[in-house]
Specification:
CATH class of the largest domain: Alpha Beta
Distance between the termini: 32 Å
Strand content: 25-35%
Shape: globular
CATH architecture of the largest domain: 2-Layer Sandwich
Helix content: 40-55%
Largest sheet: 7 strands, antiparallel
Number of domains: 3
CATH topology of the largest domain: Beta-Lactamase
Radius of gyration: 28 Å
Structural class: alpha+beta
Length: about 475
């Protein structure tokens, strides 16, 4: 058992300032929000843990903002693992909680069955601009396990995204409040205009207002900057919508029309092409301004989220990619095959699944070492993404097992040619210490039909064909294979 944690005996924060920073966010006991739910779902998938949480730690309780497992929404602070996490400036990772003297008698361990914990603090700035740990981003498992350096880095990145969401939420709420306040606040705002504009630039947020009579737009300076325009005359509404790609333009127009009709607020993300031709990701939120009992204007905020969106997309791509070969992993394969089967069933189109098992891989590992074995896997991944397979979906689904989802009618029409071509592509050679060895592969092809009610049905059929292919290759019976 290993515990990865800095000494937790000294607090790294002022408790009063920490609590003030937390309460200023108005996040405690708030309704679920899709952004936070998406982050914990991504963490659970990336790190392979059933439970991922975003927690906020109040004076005497821990409140759960987002969780991948339904159940309790809060618990006493004195039994929460996260209370120790916020007291140190590095992640706290405990491979086996039952073997740690600090936690083995904890009710969550002794009665709740928790065995593994990894968490890192989520911080927000207090009134003096000092970062305060207000909660944690953590994952838990009922089985002991470990978290490698890549997993620890991913945990920190996800915590950074959570912090960005919290900061953006506070800034957006403040901007909307300012945009919808009456004449008295406008006069006050004029005296503080310089500070407000600086805050807009730092947060990459701008405010806007659309007067429905005449469709007249008002933009703050930062909205011009996000569009790549010089500060000056605000464009017409139709011109402003032209900055969005056609598909997004329709969605934006529909959101505005729905708010005008129903008075319901909107909040959406979309791509935007600036005046200089740069693609940015933006978030727009707005609500109706009532005038004499009817919707007279729309007011809201506009934010450039290109950086955080890009980080989130990279994290999502890494969650679907096999780190060694650079092709899709098992989770991505399962989703792709399910979608391909649903499409084939709905459209009546053919579909073929190829399962591949490398022959001679263990001998190469044993003779030339794991580095040579890794080279074989990388070369196999490259072989299965050659141009002639560009319309296929390729994944590494196990140690030396690969899969290819084929929907190309021409390939499916000649399965024997396809099998021969795949086996030819799978012959790769590696060299180490003056010794060259060649790895080959056996291929099992299975066609999708009405008898395949699930992914497992098709996989079992392909697995049986793979078993037969390997038996034919070696010319003798093989041990029974476990169904995929």
């Amino acid at each position: 058992m290993m515990t990865h944690a800095a000494p937790a005996s000294r607090p790294l924060y002022d408790e009063a300032a920490r609590i003030a920073a937390l309460h200023a966010l108005a996040l405690l006991d708030s309704e679920p929000e899709k952004e936070y739910d998406a982050l914990v779902a991504l963490a659970a998938e990336m790190l392979g843990c059933p439970t991922a949480l975003i927690t906020l730690i109040d004076r005497k309780r821990l409140w759960i903002k987002a969780s991948t497992t339904p159940g309790m929404s809060e618990l006493d602070r004195d039994i929460a693992f996260c209370d120790r996490t916020i007291r140190q400036d590095t992640p706290m990772i405990v491979d086996d909680l039952t073997q740690d003297s600090r936690f083995h008698d904890n009710p969550l361990v002794a009665e709740g069955g928790m065995r593994f914990y990894a968490g890192t603090a989520i911080c927000a700035h207090d009134a003096n601009g000092v970062r305060q740990p207000i909660g944690t981003f953590c994952v838990l498992d009922s089985n002991p396990r470990s978290l490698n350096a890549a997993g620890q880095a991913a945990l920190k990145h996800l915590a950074s995204l959570a912090e960005a969401l919290i900061a953006a939420r506070r800034a957006a709420l403040e901007a909307v409040r300012i945009a919808t306040t009456g004449e008295e606040l406008v006069r006050t705002l004029a005296r503080k205009d310089r500070i407000f504009r600086q805050a807009e630039r730092i947060a990459m947020i701008g405010s806007w207002r659309l007067e429905l009579a005449g469709s007249e737009l008002e933009w703050s300076d930062n909205v011009f900057r996000i569009h790549g325009l010089p500060i000056g005359a605000v464009p017409e509404l139709s011109t402003a919508l032209d900055f969005y790609p056609p598909h997004a333009r329709a969605e934006v127009s529909a959101a505005l029309a729905r708010t005008i009709e129903t008075g319901e607020a909107f909040d959406f993300e979309a791509d935007l092409i600036t005046a200089e031709g740069q693609r940015r990701r933006v978030r727009a939120a707005g609500e109706a301004e009532m005038i004499d009992g009817s919707v007279g204007a729309l007011v809201g905020v506009f934010q450039d989220i290109t950086t955080s969106h890009g980080l989130e997309m990279r994290l999502r791509r890494s969650a679907d990619t096999d780190a060694l070969t650079g092709i899709a992993n098992r989770a991505a394969f399962d989703r792709e095959l399910e979608a391909a089967m649903a499409q084939a069933r709905a459209r009546g189109t053919p579909l073929l699944l190829a399962l591949i098992d490398l022959d001679g891989f263990k001998a190469i590992n044993d003779s030339l070492g794991h580095s040579a074995g890794d080279d074989v896997l990388r070369l196999t991944g490259a072989a299965l993404t050659q141009p002639w397979l560009r319309n296929c979906f390729t994944a590494r689904i196990g140690g030396d097992e690969f899969a290819v989802v084929i929907s190309d009618p021409a390939m499916i029409a000649d399965p024997e040619r396809l099998r021969v071509d795949l086996e030819s592509a799978l012959r790769v050679s590696v060299e180490a210490g003056g010794i060259t060895m060649t790895s080959a592969g056996s291929v099992g092809l299975a066609a999708f039909d009405e008898e395949c009610q699930s992914l497992r049905d098709l996989a079992r059929r392909a697995d049986a064909m793979l078993y037969a292919a390997k038996r034919a290759r070696v010319g003798r019976p093989l041990p029974a294979r476990k169904a995929a």
